[in-house]
Amino acid sequence: MVECRRCPRLVEWRERVAREKRAAFRDQVYWGRPIPGFGDPAARLFVLGLAPAAHGGNRTGRIFTGDRSGDWLFASMYRTGFANQPTSVHRDDGLALRGAWIGAAVRCAPPANKPLPSERDNCLPYAAAELGLLPGVRVIVCLGAFAWEAACRLYGIKPRPKFGHGAEHEPAGGGPVLLGCFHPSQQNTFTGKLTEPMTDAVFLRARELAGYEEV
Question: What element of type H or E holds 103?
Fold first, then answer.
């Protein structure tokens, strides 16, 4: 996965960001490559994000690490028993997930945080491969409509169920339950569209659906 160069637009962007850097991180070596998922190999929960942030995952080499979206996400996962700490700063910060795995629909940072449908389709086999190695997964929390659409494509779900915060869909042909959550982007968290109780409620529901004990 980390050697993939199938999407020229994403390759150019992720590598340019890694060269030019943000001033606050000018002394750091950026990852600048596709980012694999991480977590508990025995996970019953798979968290599917949109794509790495240019100066977050694309810098640190771990999805949702080193950016505000990750701060929000891991704080909630900590409160709901899926993480051993509420922060994710860099790859060696001691973060461990419990019963959960995190990946993304697109594994390279896209310009303006907006991957193209063709880039999604190029990248989905990596999420499919990860899910194939995680036979215990019972629930997929989809962070945003893009991830919801990606999960529907992964499992061939037609017609597409409508995305919404707290939406649930159990595929008729079997497979994990899809659980919708607004993406923890600043656009949602700063405006109050997504609150901490709303995020926690989704992960507590995921615990229930996955058959984990209450926290």
Answer: strand 100-104
Give the bridge partners for 103, in sequence order: 48
CB 120 within 8 A of CB 106: yes
Helix (H) or strand (E) holding 45: strand 45-49
Distance in angstroms (rounded) separating the CA atoms of residues 52 and 39: 16
Q: For the chain, which residues make up each domain, given as ranges? A: 8-210
Whole-angstrom distance, CA of residue 85 vs CA of residue 8: 36
For 108-138, letters b (16+ CB in 10 Å) and e give bbbeebebeeebbebbbebbeebbeebebbb
User: Which residue, 12, 3, 186, 211, is CA-closest to 111?
Assistant: 12
CATH-assigned architecture of domain 8-210: 3-Layer(aba) Sandwich (3.40)
**What pTM does this model have?**
0.97
Rg (CA), the chain: 16
pLDDT in tens, 42-74: 999 999 999 999 999 999 999 999 999 999 999
**Distances from the Cα of 114 to the Cα of 67, 108, 133, angstroms:** 17, 11, 28
In this structure, what token pair is assigned to residue 179?
Answer: 């659980």
At residue 188's C-alpha, the angle toward residues 212 and 98, to 5°, is 20
Neighbours of 177 (CB within 10 A): 17
